[in-house]
Amino acid sequence: MAQEIRDITCVQCPMGCQLKVTIDDGEVVSVEGNTCPRGRTYGEREATCPERVVTSLVSVAGDSRPVPCKTVAAVPKELVEQVLIEIKNTRLEPGVRVGDVLIRDVAGTGVDVIATRGYVPFK
Length: 123
Known about the structure:
Elements: E1 4-9, E2 18-24, E3 27-32, H1 37-48, E4 51-52, E5 55-60, E6 63-71, E7 75-76, H2 80-88, E8 91-92, E9 101-103, E10 113-115
Parallel strand pairs: 5-8
Antiparallel strand pairs: 1-2, 2-3, 4-7, 5-6, 6-10, 9-10
């Protein structure tokens, strides 16, 4: 397998370092351009197994106002679409509070989806 070089922008701090990650036979052999250790770790992970925290909105039965939600941890990037489908297919009952678990083990990732704002019905 040939050596591959990936250009990645680090998002671990406001610096936005431009990383050059070299991969040989599926293994990261070098990360260049980072100004802190977090950049190296980010570059290695992003090049080999990228992950994302997913944010979205969940419908509430009988109301047009959805509740914002997010995954409590990053999920594999290739499963983001499945996570979003599960969120889209979820209907909440009124009475949701901030931090309530809305979906456990979303898309088989071992990660829960929680409410990031409570639901207050119209009066």
